[in-house]
Amino acid sequence: MSSEIIAFVTELKDLSLDIKRRAGELSKLRKRKDEIEKKICEFLVQQDQPGVKYRDVAVILEKNKYKRLPKKKAQKEEDAVNVLKHYGVGNAEKILAEVIETMKGEEVPKNSIRLKNVTHTGNIR
């Protein structure tokens, strides 16, 4: 094998491990951020204050904001079929499947790389 390929493989392995590590860190950071935002919101509601200012940061409580809870894929499809049936569309399941397939992009062939740890030494052929 050429030394260039060996360097690429080594770098690819290192990058994959780094991405995995950072994804775990980001997950923990997002969870902690949500906890802190919840505590600040609770404090502002208890104190009946619209917000607080600390040094160069103003934290403002935005009341009456709505967030839509996510639906599972099966629930989305069931609801869409019900809407189609409500408006008199026959064979709603087939039409929905066709609409969903139409919304997807075109499939194009793509080569990909998979890293696999091997226990023995030697070239992989």
Automatic annotation (TrEMBL):
Name the UniProt record assigns to this protein: Uncharacterized protein
Organism: viral metagenome
Lineage: unclassified sequences, metagenomes, organismal metagenomes
